[in-house]
Design a protein that fits this description.
- The structure is a homotetramer of 327-residue chains.
- The first copy, chain A, has 327 residues and is α+β, with helices and mostly antiparallel strands.
- The first copy, chain A, has a single domain (2-321), classed as Chorismate synthase AroC (Chorismate synthase, AroC fold, 4-Layer Sandwich), CATH 3.60.150.
- Chain A is 24% helix and 22% strand.
- In chain A, the strands form 5 sheets. A 5-stranded antiparallel β-sheet of chain A has the order 1-2-3-7-4, covered by helices on one side. Chain A has a 4-stranded antiparallel β-sheet with strand order 8-9-13-10. In chain A, strands 5-6 form a two-stranded antiparallel sheet.
- In chain A, β5 and β6 (71-72) form a beta hairpin.
- In chain A, α1 runs antiparallel to α3, α3 packs across α7 and α5 runs antiparallel to α7 (300-321).
- The first copy, chain A, is globular.
- The relative contact order of chain A is 0.19.
- Chains in contact: A-B, A-C, A-D, B-C, B-D, C-D.
- Chains A and B meet through β1, α2, α5, β10 and α6 of A and β1, α2, α5, β10 and α6 of B.
Chain lengths: 327, 327, 327, 327
Amino acid sequence: MRLGQTVCVTLFGESHGNSVGSLVEGVPAGTIIDAEILMEDMIARRPGSKLASKRKETDEVEILSGVYQGKATGDPILLLIRNRDARSTDYEFLPNQPRPGHADHVSNVKSQGYADPRGGGSFSGRLTAGLVAAGSISRLILPSEWKVEAKIHQIGGLDESEGRILAENCRKEKDSIGSSVILEISGLPVGIGEPWFDGLEPALAGALMAIPGARAVEFGRGVMAGTMKGSEHNDLWLDDFKLLEGADGALGGISTGAKLTVTITFKPPSSIAQPQQTWNEGLKEIRELIVKGRHDPVLAPRARMVVEAVARLVLADLGVRGGYIDA
Amino acid sequence: MRLGQTVCVTLFGESHGNSVGSLVEGVPAGTIIDAEILMEDMIARRPGSKLASKRKETDEVEILSGVYQGKATGDPILLLIRNRDARSTDYEFLPNQPRPGHADHVSNVKSQGYADPRGGGSFSGRLTAGLVAAGSISRLILPSEWKVEAKIHQIGGLDESEGRILAENCRKEKDSIGSSVILEISGLPVGIGEPWFDGLEPALAGALMAIPGARAVEFGRGVMAGTMKGSEHNDLWLDDFKLLEGADGALGGISTGAKLTVTITFKPPSSIAQPQQTWNEGLKEIRELIVKGRHDPVLAPRARMVVEAVARLVLADLGVRGGYIDA
Amino acid sequence: MRLGQTVCVTLFGESHGNSVGSLVEGVPAGTIIDAEILMEDMIARRPGSKLASKRKETDEVEILSGVYQGKATGDPILLLIRNRDARSTDYEFLPNQPRPGHADHVSNVKSQGYADPRGGGSFSGRLTAGLVAAGSISRLILPSEWKVEAKIHQIGGLDESEGRILAENCRKEKDSIGSSVILEISGLPVGIGEPWFDGLEPALAGALMAIPGARAVEFGRGVMAGTMKGSEHNDLWLDDFKLLEGADGALGGISTGAKLTVTITFKPPSSIAQPQQTWNEGLKEIRELIVKGRHDPVLAPRARMVVEAVARLVLADLGVRGGYIDA
Amino acid sequence: MRLGQTVCVTLFGESHGNSVGSLVEGVPAGTIIDAEILMEDMIARRPGSKLASKRKETDEVEILSGVYQGKATGDPILLLIRNRDARSTDYEFLPNQPRPGHADHVSNVKSQGYADPRGGGSFSGRLTAGLVAAGSISRLILPSEWKVEAKIHQIGGLDESEGRILAENCRKEKDSIGSSVILEISGLPVGIGEPWFDGLEPALAGALMAIPGARAVEFGRGVMAGTMKGSEHNDLWLDDFKLLEGADGALGGISTGAKLTVTITFKPPSSIAQPQQTWNEGLKEIRELIVKGRHDPVLAPRARMVVEAVARLVLADLGVRGGYIDA
């Protein structure tokens, strides 16, 4: 549950346990830790909006180590978020009747029955709270000209505003809808990324695919590149190695100076309120399951913040490793 | 340039240097090292077919350590492949006039001019020889029922047989064409994959995106999941947790027992024989560049083998880490 | 601040900050987490006895993640210990006049002034609380026949009972005294340890030398081996590879089945109550410094517990990595 | 078989296999690779002198990747040393009758019989050739004012010149003798070393204890510190944080600016020519064993070079990690 090598974050916690959070290592000494930004980031990710789960969490982050007089000491920073509004009674069917589309069953098998099944345990999207908190810390590690922005790309094939209406309808119909997020990274100098498996794209792809519900990552022209010709796809180096708008932001995993664009596809949330016919291991038969809980009908609106957090953490790590950010 | 944690492979070498290869660590003692399979895998990846680069390499692999009496000792295995048919004179324009779509420029900037520029140096697809050799070693680490197969999914929007004709035409027109590979992994027990950033999908996505030319990875229904409804996308658990054909092969990054399907999109090869107008740093102006070399008009036919190798290495690593394969 | 690869512990916290503790990863699912043992271990390390610092800490450990119904889930376990009895006013001379023998100065330079200086910050022996808590968790990972015991070897050249009197006198004289701990590991099967840098001795030496105040580690006959002959030192393999009492517990870093003995030398505690003439950076002159705080006159009595904790964590890591303990 | 995190070296090879060597990662691009220094370092370690094993190896190092036009490219550097003068017939008693004091038996058990037993296989001191070659590369990574020097401290209780005579006598008597090496590191700025487990002392202790035959490591006053008083042991900070000669070179694992002194004790070589009565697993009885081979009667003279290599590699790693050396 660890991301990164130099700047690295380890997640911990369970959806309905005592707490969630993250331990962030490698934050350069002197980095300003801005509690206000942290709070804003947590609010942006927080459930409770119309399109989001009805679980109410204040998501207050306790900073328990590694910060002195408002600045990072260089030592591990512990970010702790208590769980307060967990309704574990909503999950009494677990692990007997695992939810379709969730990790309940595989987690139970893998842990030989020792996993905390409530609300998805450590597989829950709730753990992205620790990731967003860590990402917020990484904001001030990154040079100010490195811009990271994630937006809703589409919801069920529609643009953001129409898609939100669609999602609200899906919720009413006890259903949910797929979506995607577009991530844009700009302002990087040439040279960010390490060769091969630690390149910008491998690092981003690996980290982004860990966000619950992610099903695809595309870089630049993405899937479309699979039907293009070389003469169309090649980005010519213009004066002083400038590139045209739309050029790939990385080659061989190393930043080119052009904007890096990543599209991340999220499946429709698996928790839907309509009855589902699925295996009950206790009764050894297929039974109707109604998932209560309080759930989002679409992932992109909240996943957006997680995508940004993940991207910032990856950039902070690669930036320090490559010597582009002072450790 | 390292992939994996327990079973891990480190690539080394340069396209036109002395050699390429890999150091493979964590191969369980007693694993049979089958020189014949190794040779076959190398031949399948080897350039020289009609659709492939004309560079002729025998790609003989010297196994220089870690194997005794035909079996792995458990110590690091050094796989060395000498470069023989390198024509460095083809690359005399480097690093002055970097090729469009290649890492020449970013590599030169990142290394402050110390990188070996010839033929892409350490960014060259030539390094996949070491990866395929390592993947071949991992074949016999995997339990025999774990099946890994990568096929050509499409070339320029056409199926394999028509696509090959298209690619041959592109070559004649001094152009190249995009493609994609479909990877199918079957026979895994429930439970392979570690939580979050070391899940099956994150691990595969990170590793596959490091293959030169990869632009997208999609799992299961991939990009299509972004417009589906939850009621359609959810895979119901059937009797004894069986799943229907087409169900996701992993949930939360952990194998479900269903076939895992991954689609990897490759851009059209950037080396095309037609003249390109691109920046010449030596002359400080945009000039025509004609890339000689001997190049593939499409990546999927050879990338297929690399995809399989990468997938096997990832599975070997996760299998050992999870205790599903004896170390 | 991380120890281990498979079973691994990351320390966090500062002596006079909010808290100290550790994040323990890789604890096999199902491992019993015994709160009573944890409490006993913490009490044994706790300051407050005659020979120990007068700082009073209850050292209650909050287990905030990774445990469900009294057993490890396999996910990261967060162990948090709040600081309660910190008297930061005792350290107002820092960082201006760093204490001799402490890391105050080097920590200040390394962190460019951003370290928390109070009570040694993250270099304080207080962080061993998190290490002992983690070691306590590792107790139940180890097979019951693997015995780990650390005893006071000597204090100021005297045996334990006389040495304690000596230490008490040193305290009265506002001085402190050196000591050593002997660690005995028995009951290991043949084969624990990984080759070269991850062998039993390298792993133990590296981890033990991180305990504050450690100055030497000796294995088996230790320093004495430097003057012995091969014919004396060689341990002959007896019937069925038994070894005589006193034989080396590891060869080439791998356990032999014989008892492994390690002697760890600790310097006299650097915090002594007598005035010391030392550089004051604020005043730019050498000045008298009187270290208040509440300090131990000898390290071995409390370090003993830390040595055991570290040894258990190293064995748990190597045991899991080698497949001798099920992950 | 890997040392270091940023600058890191992985050993490979077996004593009587095809080759030994190392893969060195993280060498900063532009580092001069001086083939002459490399050759000199290899000669200094090479067997063949009076006090050393009679095995004749030219120990020529092939640099097979990562170097272009005499400078490091920043990519992995493969250093290969072929085995030429291996007499495997000397080891036909293995693995049936493992040598006392060697890893033959534990290696055989650990690998379930798959290890290469000849001459100690991958546990052989022969692998230090790859370590010395890597250490030689690291020479030019270190700033020139960082001095690393290892000298013979004592042989069998005598100084170097008398000790060498003693060792020669031991050889004639078909015996061997213990020894120690003193390592001095000077010229480091304040701040080298990372907190806790990656401090200078933990990192050096772990790495040095991996050298075959090492039995103890002592820092500064070492074992003697165990009987000293705090008032004697404390090093006072003098004007501008200078320290007196003899002060500890590190506090809390971080360099103080004073010379760092490490004493490493080596056991007498286990290969002695006199008959030894030891277990024969083939015959299931204790039998006389005469170890032929060609062996050193004392380790310090050649281990000295390995100690320096290891120390340089550790410093290069910590120097890059701490930002004291540009990556």
